[in-house]
Specification:
The structure is a single chain. This protein is mostly beta strands. Helices cover 3% and strands 48% of the residues. The chain has 2 helices and 42 strands. Strands 6, 7, 8, 9, 10, 32, 33 and 34 form an 8-stranded mixed sheet that branches. Strands 1, 4, 5, 36, 39, 40 and 42 form a 7-stranded antiparallel sheet that branches. The longest helix is centred in the middle third of the chain and has 11 residues. It is elongated, with a radius of gyration of 27 Å.
Length: 520
């Protein structure tokens, strides 16, 4: 018996057509199938920042303080009510003043056992502002803008009622300073408006049913500000969240248990970020607002939902490494999630535009820790304190990018398209190196066609001819057609750039293609 033949419609080519695909302002997508992904996403996006209307090469990471001898693992900003500010860095067994850019000076604190400290600013009833630092191993260190004080039961100020070396992870709730006891389910609190005094414990051992120990705590509000309705909460290593409501933990009439929830296991020793009126948690399943985690820890409520596969992989591979941390850079509307692939040498950051919810990946920023100081993002690295988002260079080196936009069928599903030309609308104030390609049918082939960026010669004051010379300041557009070859049902822009000191933006891409027949 003869087998039936398989019929295919001939791949006829007709007149050329054009199609425009906007820049992938939706950011990185590690959730959807590549076959159904909307083209306003990208399945590869490295060192691009998605704005509300285009994508731009990220700004640079540059040294702020140099000359340290090892890994900077904590940054501790000090801010007085009068505007006095200072930044301290913990490296090895020492603290250093990192306020002023340049070569580091002598250590300001020496002889501590490790560089993994947590800190808060607190002003007492006498009006003295302290930077209070704890690590659960050494005596806490307080800075009062003139001297560093080791806090014991006999210092001034002093903490009594508990061995101070076991305290870590401080926070403030209802004008009281709280700390957790290392490797326990106890949280300790001090008197109102005090950085010292008789500490008392809130023991959660009879409340937390999964065991483990406290990781961190904070306060949560429903109205976006501090007030008497704020919740006190603490998170355990086994993923339980305990919440109380009230102002005075010594009084049953003003302090009551709200509930205990299983929210998922936290990652790292710094899984919390107070974000406006909310608290964000780094959990094994992703980054969650506390309110949503208490209601449901389903993946759809995670801020990292669109990159859930990437976060799941990172969690599985690197969750035991030190360096997981969140930071919020308000000026750029940027939430930063630090992921330590290798402690002290290989870290990357997932960054989200909080306006659009778009994520991207930053590479070549080896950060152990983050803080915001004077409104700018700073990070602790190997022998350095760095600053992100200054100029468009990484310590004088190129910023290299990778991009593959989500595949598009150009509005003709099921039809073969032969893409012959692509025109990426790239704006820059110089001549970046750009490689352009077009991949078909979900391939990932690196581009090889070099785009020549023409640039513009700007006029010089007192030299250029009036009404003839071009004044600088605006970005130049390169919108030349590039010859490519891609044949398939789906196509996607593939691009690499290298730039140094240049602003580079992608607005959209136009394609010229011939449509063939329907594949049968």
């Amino acid at each position: 018996m003869r087998n039936p033949s398989i019929l295919k419609v001939a791949r006829k080519r007709g007149a050329s057509k054009t199609f425009t695909v906007p820049a992938p302002v939706g950011g990185l997508n590690a959730r959807d199938s590549v076959a159904t992904m909307d083209p306003h996403y990208a399945n590869i996006m490295q060192n691009w920042w998605p704005t509300t209307n285009d994508i731009m090469v990220r700004k640079g990471a540059n040294d702020h303080v140099t000359g340290l001898s090892g890994q900077v693992e904590s940054l501790m900003p000090y801010v007085k009510p009068d505007g006095t500010e200072a930044l301290f860095a913990a490296e090895g067994t020492d603290f250093f003043d990192a306020t002023t850019a340049g070569a580091v000076g002598a250590a300001v604190v020496s002889g501590v056992s490790n560089a993994r400290w947590d800190s808060i600013n607190f002003t007492n009833t006498s009006g003295v502002s302290y930077l209070c630092c704890f690590n659960g191993a050494d005596t806490p260190k307080y800075w009062n803008n003139s001297a560093w004080i080791s806090i014991t039961g006999a210092s001034s100020p002093a903490i009594t009622g508990v061995t101070t070396t076991i305290l870590k992870a401080p926070w403030v709730h209802q004008r009281r300073m709280w700390m957790i006891e290392k490797d326990s389910l106890k949280a300790w609190f001090l008197p109102v408006d005090a950085v010292g005094g008789a500490a008392e414990a809130l023991d959660l051992s009879g409340i937390c049913k999964l065991g483990g120990h406290l990781i961190a705590g904070g306060n949560y509000t429903f109205d976006g500000g501090d007030g008497p309705d704020d919740y006190w909460y603490a998170i355990t290593s086994e993923g339980e969240a305990v919440a109380y409501r009230g102002t005075d933990p010594t009084s049953l009439s003003t302090w009551s248990l709200v509930g205990v929830w299983s929210v998922g296991r936290p990652i790292g020793s710094r899984p919390l970020l107070k974000f406006r009126g909310e608290a964000l948690l780094i959990l094994e399943e992703g980054v969650y607002p506390l309110a949503q985690a208490l209601q449901s820890a389903g993946v759809t409520s995670a801020l990292t939902f669109t990159i859930k596969d990437s976060i799941a992989n990172a969690s599985a591979l690197y969750s035991s490494n030190f360096g997981w941390e969140l930071a919020f850079y308000q000026e750029a509307n940027m939430l930063i999630l630090n992921v330590p692939r290798t402690e002290g040498s290989d870290q990357q950051q997932y960054a989200m535009n909080i306006i659009t919810g778009a994520w991207t990946v930053f590479d070549n920023i080896d950060a152990n820790c983050w803080t915001i100081f004077k409104g700018q993002p700073y990070f602790g690295g190997n022998q350095t304190v760095g600053q992100l988002w200054g100029n468009f260079t990484d310590n004088g080196n190129n910023i290299d990018t990778e991009l593959q936009q989500a595949f598009s069928d150009f509005g003709l599903p099921g039809m073969i398209k032969h893409v012959k030309l692509v025109k990426p609308f790239i704006f820059s104030d110089g001549k970046p190196k750009v490689l352009i390609g077009c991949n078909s049918d979900f391939k990932d082939e690196t581009p090889s066609s070099s785009l020549t960026f023409a640039g513009t010669a700007y006029g010089v004051w007192d030299t250029a001819v009036w009404d003839s010379g071009v004044w600088g300041g605006a970005l130049n557009i390169n919108d030349d057609w590039q010859t490519v070859f891609a044949e398939g049902e789906y196509s996607a822009l593939r691009m690499q750039t290298a730039s140094n000191g240049l602003e580079v933006r992608l607005k959209a891409s136009n394609y010229v293609f011939e449509a063939g027949g329907i594949v049968g």
